[in-house]
Design goal:
kinase; two-stranded antiparallel ribbon; nucleotide-binding; GTP-dependent dephospho-CoA kinase; alpha/beta; globular; seven-stranded mixed β-sheet; GTP-binding; coenzyme a biosynthesis; 6 helices
Length: 164
Amino acid sequence: MRLPESLRPQLKKPLGLLMQDSSVTKSSISDKIPKGALVITVGDATTEKMLSFGLTPSLQIVDALEKRNKRDLPAGTTETVLTCTNPAAEITEESISVIRKALSMTFPVRIIVNGEEDLLVLPVAVYAPDNSVILYGQPNEGLVLVHMTEEVRNRAKSIMNSMS
């Protein structure tokens, strides 16, 4: 699935609560994550920040890039590492399949994406269970914290269905 230009403005609107970088602390994040929630991070900087807070995300989706610049993968121990290919501005069937597989495994799981992971927030929102919290970066703005709801799931499905 390719992202058409016409959908880009929709993706600039966060799927959840946008927290300015300056207000992202261990306690401000921990306070917003319900006990027992499945925590999913999409993005290297977001994953690294959660790990630095001592919070190990159940599912981590990273690509060793930040704003298209190469970077080291976030340090951290994961039980399982999966890989997939996902070019920029696309969501591949392979990446959807790997996300679905990862969500059924013993956590923590890390998916290393060959390409770009940004749009993978959408299939994560479609397939993550209701007790999930998704964290991802909003470029030059901050961190988005999404509590999975049917409304979020439907919005993600709608965007994906609009992609060709």
